[in-house]
Design a protein that fits this description.
Blueprint: E1 7-11, E2 14-15, E3 24-25, E4 29-33, E5 44-52, E6 55-63, E7 72-79, E8 86-87, E9 94-97, E10 102-104, E11 114-122, E12 131-132, E13 136-140, E14 146-154, E15 157-165, E16 174-181, E17 189-190, E18 197-200, E19 205-207, E20 217-225, E21 234-235, E22 239-243, H1 285-306
Antiparallel strand pairs: 1-4, 2-3, 5-6, 6-10, 7-8, 7-9, 7-11, 11-12, 11-13, 14-15, 15-19, 16-17, 16-18, 16-20, 20-21, 20-22
Length: 307
Amino acid sequence: TGTLTPGSYYFMVSYCGNATYSAATSTSEPFSIASPPPPPPSASLSTTPAVTGLSATDGATVSGTSGMPTGTVTFTLYSGTSPSGTLVTGYTADTVTLVNGGATSVSTGTLTPGSYYFMVSYSGNATYSSATSTAEPFSIAFQTATLATTPNVTGLSATDGATVSGTSGMPTGTVTFTLYSGSPTSGGTLVTGYTADTVGLTSGQATSASTGTLAAGSYYFMVSYSGNATYSAITGTVELFIITPSSASTTPKTGTSAYKIPTSAPQTGAGGSAGVTFNAGLLSIGSLMLLAGLGVMGFMLRRRRNA
């Protein structure tokens, strides 16, 4: 008969007869097509993803009009945008039993920044039919790192140190140090001979190469962090430092040797004078004292002879 609508029907059957038997017709053969049982009521499924840093969970609530729904909810995670997303490797579809009509997925774990969505399905039970949610999109944003720098001046040169920190693991990547002379407010000038120095972070830290000898004046470093799969790139604030003229070293005057007393000073007779040989230059204090002493002794000797 093919598909019939619910209701009452009957067949009438007739026999055509043959050379031996006459034709015959049956009585009516009634039958009924019953109405199909009503489908189970549909449950209402709502989901709410929650993002914390680089991970997320999804919460589902199943409700209905014929008592509290029971059964399970399955959470499946995709990257990209619906409906062309890709199953996230490492996140197994998570099936959770409803408790008071609610269920929460396990955490996605750390995700790279980008677009994602959950698909959630309800198993149904003896009362409620199964249900599938619409896509529940969410985004994982790049985290913001903190960049701190400290210039270190030694004599006529300087270095700069950078520390990059964050709340979602140790930042990796590179830091670039660029050196300028002058004032940033009036427009600094790149220092000739100092190539922008890019240094890989080690435990979140990096130190620039030395500037080499700089002329006295004002300078500043500009420092930028490259960012990575977790943290966005950032540029630090201006790091001013000053190179001051070094103190002029006082070079002792090149003096000649002090006056020297000869080993034998020629003497004249009474009233003569002691001969002294002078070297060019200044008398030392010791030599002056020695000369003074010899003069006194000579004077006393002459007085005795005269007496």
